Amino acid sequence: MISAIVWRGASILYGMLNLAVFTTLALIDGSIFHKTTEKEKKDLAIAQQQFWDLNNSPLGLKHKFFILNDGRKLHYMENLGTNSPKNLTIFIHGFPDSWILWQHYLTSPRLSQNSILIGVDLPGYGGSDGIKNYGAEAVLETMTAFILGMREHYGAIQMDADGKVFIVTHDWGSVIAFRLASEAPQLADRFIISSAVHPQQTYSTILAHFASSRQMLHTWIRRPLSFRLLKTAIRTLTPVFSQASKSGYVFVFNLPDPLSTFCGRMGNMWLLRIMHRVAAGKLQPNGKLGELGPKEVAESMAASLGPGTAQFIPTGSEDAYPESVMSRAQSGGWSEKIRLYREGLILGQWEKSLETIVRLSEIDQDNSHSRRSSRGAGIFEDGPPGVCKAPVTVVYGRMDPAFEPQLSLEGISDYLTKRSQVVVLDKAGHWLPMEKDGFRVMEKVVNWALEGEEGELRAQLQDLADVKVAIEK
Fold it and tell me: Which CATH code of 1.10.3720.10, 3.30.1950.10, 3.40.50.1820, 1.10.10.10 fits the domain covering 56-200+348-472?
């Protein structure tokens, strides 16, 4: 009880410190006083019309909606592929994005030859309804229902009898994927996960670093002249402190409202615009961020903000955006987006519904409908909490500003099953799906999976510089 109060107090103080830093930076570059110009409004409206108008087929893709049991709707984009593709690939984005993050994959001629391609908007993002809460149970049940629905729908109308299902993810989509690979491995034949930490592995690693340092400090107290021991104890915590500095924004997002929402809205959504510049690769060698062009700004904002009011069709039909999407259009939906950070998704308990248990069991029992190859691990096989029970390919950028490499990779092999890999890009950042090198690697990995995983993944990537398969089980 006392420790929880102390932790909450320290978290608020650290969040306030980071909020002060953000506000100062916005003041320095003048963004805090920036007002949206008429031209910016017009450019955004054009971009939203391009990507979100339900009467359009942006990039040749088709707008679709999946209706959950409670009537809420998830928006997704569909590419039925060419040459009667036999597989199904589902792309799941993270914060603060939408299906648009995956536009180059969803329209890839190479991938569409072998798979139906689906890009979904997470609950509360893009064109999807929000949900009542964003804890582990609600989010994982929602995404499991969607994936099961996609398996059933496309399996019935187009997938080959021997086809497989793949889930490709980024950021919070990857946190969800790690949990599904552990707790609902029946959903996919392989999870391809980018730019995220394994929740349980990272948590356990941090605890191990604290325990080790504490033990050394206890010994040092009895031997205070052993300065080497003291240095080692402090050095053991260095990656933890590094991760805390990288996660400063997370503490801001967890501040009490309205401070948490102020962070997203101040300076004409300054923080969101900074993220877009980083995602677009505008970070210069001197550490400064370059500017995006007007069209790039508009398209990036459209990707994060979702549909505008002009895309709202008040018909109440199944083929219209739900009311909650339009209410977010007025404010940008920041307060809903950050709920993924605030409501316990990363480590919260998931008590599966009876329907979910039954439907997952049906996949295991009926091989003719599951279209699955061996996962390489039994569902009830022992391992550390959170161990993945389906094959996983983790793609990680060593220059990712959100994660400390040592904590992200230390001991991760213990959480992976057979036929799993960890691919490390030495010079890549966080938005791997959008980065030039990241896209090349991700497309190769997905295509390798779609083509039957012939040969080692290492061989598929050997022609790429600064890319290595760090773990292959």
Answer: 3.40.50.1820
